[in-house]
TrEMBL record:
<protein>
    <recommendedName>
        <fullName>Superoxide dismutase [Cu-Zn]</fullName>
        <ecNumber>1.15.1.1</ecNumber>
    </recommendedName>
</protein>
<dbReference type="Pfam" id="PF00080">
    <property type="entry name" value="Sod_Cu"/>
</dbReference>
<dbReference type="InterPro" id="IPR018152">
    <property type="entry name" value="SOD_Cu/Zn_BS"/>
</dbReference>
<dbReference type="GO" id="GO:0005507">
    <property type="term" value="F:copper ion binding"/>
</dbReference>
<dbReference type="InterPro" id="IPR001424">
    <property type="entry name" value="SOD_Cu_Zn_dom"/>
</dbReference>
<keyword id="KW-0186">Copper</keyword>
<keyword id="KW-0862">Zinc</keyword>
<keyword id="KW-0560">Oxidoreductase</keyword>
<comment type="similarity">
    <text>Belongs to the Cu-Zn superoxide dismutase family.</text>
</comment>
<comment type="function">
    <text>Destroys radicals which are normally produced within the cells and which are toxic to biological systems.</text>
</comment>
<keyword id="KW-0479">Metal-binding</keyword>
<dbReference type="GO" id="GO:0004784">
    <property type="term" value="F:superoxide dismutase activity"/>
</dbReference>
<dbReference type="InterPro" id="IPR036423">
    <property type="entry name" value="SOD-like_Cu/Zn_dom_sf"/>
</dbReference>
<dbReference type="InterPro" id="IPR024134">
    <property type="entry name" value="SOD_Cu/Zn_/chaperone"/>
</dbReference>
<feature type="domain" description="Superoxide dismutase copper/zinc binding">
    <location>
        <begin position="53"/>
        <end position="195"/>
    </location>
</feature>
Amino acid sequence: MGQLVAFPRKKEDFALLTLKYLFFIFLINGQELSYPLYARVNVHLSDSKTSIGTLYFIQGQRSSPVIIRGNLAGLIPNTTYHGFHVHTSKVDDQRPNCTAANAHFNPFNRTHGAPVSTIDHRHAGDLGNIYADGSGKAAIFIADTIIRLNRPTGQRSILNRTIIVHKDIDDLGLGGQNDSLTTGHAGARLACGHIFSTTMTENQAFKTFLF
Ligand SMILES: [Cu+2]
Ligand SMILES: [Zn+2]
């Protein structure tokens, strides 16, 4: 204690600053993330604040797939498949215009593809299609090997980005339309939501992802 007090004040501050800096570097390197990681999105129709459902995300380990689970309602009945992507920018849930999400999340500058494609042949955000039934409901259970929840520095992290449900089917880059290789020709943006990091108890996670 006496020795600490004997340190010049400035030196002490410097040591503390260095420690804080090192800790920050440690944090942004993602070493401190505690798995599983969770995220959530409240999906709303474009230009509406009314929720059409909540989707949950879990990433169990550092290189585990991300599982997406949840139910949506209020999609157009009998329209079957809808393009389902992560787009780059965060939408403001208070001004919920889905156009603000910009283009598909594409950190490796690839062309649009299918979720089953390798990382070299799809956008990271390409999650394919979801299926809406005759009453406009969609039950979602997707496991994706490319996306991650490892913000702050994770290159593939979808946190603080946007989920978009399109009006039309995503052709997975195979349709031969002029926008097949950029958007999958999936048409207008029906619904969207801001993906944010969240926590869950083991019990909540069990119920959410297994039932
Ligand atoms: Cu999209
Ligand atoms: Zn894409």
